[in-house]
Amino acid sequence: MRISQLVERSGVPLATVKYYLREGLLPPGEATGATRARYGEEHVRRLALIRALTEVVGLSVARTRAVLELMEAPTTDLYAALGHAVAALPPYVEEQAEDHPRARAALGTLGWVYDPGYPAVAQLERALAAAESVGMPIDDERLRCYGEHVHRIAELDIAQVPAGDAGAAIEYAVLGTAIYEPVLAALRRLAHQDVSASAFGDR
Amino acid sequence: MRISQLVERSGVPLATVKYYLREGLLPPGEATGATRARYGEEHVRRLALIRALTEVVGLSVARTRAVLELMEAPTTDLYAALGHAVAALPPYVEEQAEDHPRARAALGTLGWVYDPGYPAVAQLERALAAAESVGMPIDDERLRCYGEHVHRIAELDIAQVPAGDAGAAIEYAVLGTAIYEPVLAALRRLAHQDVSASAFGDR
């Protein structure tokens, strides 16, 4: 299809498509003349993914490019590739630390992998420090409860990773982490409401 | 104590303490002269709470005032007061809608309370719409899994609401909702890593 049809099919404005081509987020079409190129279904799919990452998830163009590059790089270590890809997602913890004592202790209590270089470890450290700073530290009972139930949720998430295709697995990991997180947060508030209705509401 | 001691005890700068007094976030001290007042432990506690709400949770001064007012208002309906208080937290969904079809269907599947005026309902609607828009709608299996485990987490959260003191209950609900949400999000990512390590990593 021509670029005008790509614009129509994808719903992405022409100037934006050209910008993505220039920035290397969208691979060039097949040249059919000095100033013309032909685009395929893979371009439509790629534009939908770029849109999801930038507009729905809210990633910068640079971070979107990093995710797309990981999806295309041949990999023999899917575990590492998934880790790098999810690291493109906020929250971004700037502090470099060699150790994350609160997170290390929490992961030790849960018996989970502790890898101080994994971005979510710094994220957990900061969240635990914030809880302490307002006088509501996470005690062991809460940690074990949250950990047990979040682990069960993660088991379902990981069971649904597309098998055999690293690019599809990375796409699922990044979008699924970002997109389902707000669903979980909303469900927690609604579960609070549901439990409170019987506890406090006489409803 | 004098205002200078309040500054020292709380760690909040004098100009900020005066600003909170002017804005009505901090109740006035007991007047001991034309320009002097005496402050008590309740002022130290209040400043710590204001700091938690503004600096750690990130609320605006207006939303912080709304939470503090709810904590002080006498209430016979704790369920409603908790709902109003948690509504001060982001994400703020601006759209006014009479119905939230995706959230209604999801809550119906889960068998939970559906109250279209509750802010978290609009939040869930938006999160479900975002999942659809990237081609990853929440299917029933995922919804039931997330719902079941988040409900168990919410049961622990609600069981720990301080009993008998509406102000303390509101403080716990607002801080606990905001402060433990990032802990859960970080734990989910770490649980993904823990499950992936055995699924993909040969670790």
Poorly predicted runs of chain A: none
The end-to-end distance of chain A, rounded to whole angstroms, is 59 Å
Strand content of chain A: under 5%
Helix content of chain A: 55-70%
Description:
- 2 copies of one chain form a homodimer.
- The first copy, chain A, is an all-alpha fold.
- Chain A is 66% helix and 2% strand.
- Chain A has helices at residues 3-10, 14-23, 41-56, 61-72, 78-86, 101-110, 119-133, 140-159, 166-199; strands at 30-31, 37-38.
- In chain A, strands 1-2 form a two-stranded antiparallel sheet.
- In chain A, helix 5 crosses helix 9.
- Chain A starts with a helix and ends with a helix.
- The mean pLDDT of chain A is 91.
- The interface between A and B is large, with 78 and 76 residues.
What would you say about this model in short?
The structure is a homodimer of 203-residue chains. The first copy, chain A, has 203 residues and is an all-alpha fold. The first copy, chain A, has nine helices and two strands.
Q: Which key features would you list for this structure?
A:
two-stranded antiparallel ribbon; homodimer; 9 helices; 203 residues; mainly alpha
